[in-house]
Prior knowledge:
By secondary structure, the protein is an alpha+beta fold. It is built from two helices and six strands; from the N terminus they run βαββββαβ.
Amino acid sequence: MNYEVIFVVLPRGTADNVMSLAKKSGAKGGTVLLARGTGAEEAKTFFGLTVEEAKEILFVLTEKQETDRILDAIIEAANLKRPGSGIAFVLDARKTVGLISQSQL
């Protein structure tokens, strides 16, 4: 099978909802990593303390024929067409190891 990985960078606290809606569109699951942004804008301060932008990175391994449907659900769920709400991109997963196929269940 051919796989792709959908990567989504989101504001902290939003990945679970986005993943839930991606599952309704056929995603089998995903992984959420905590991160912080280092965007071009100047760091925000609050009472003299630097506040870093907290992020979550969601990645979802998909079969190529399902990627567009799942990505569309993610774009809608995360409101990614609105500037500043996050970004998403897709990469080929050239080699995969450790996956369980439906025939093995």
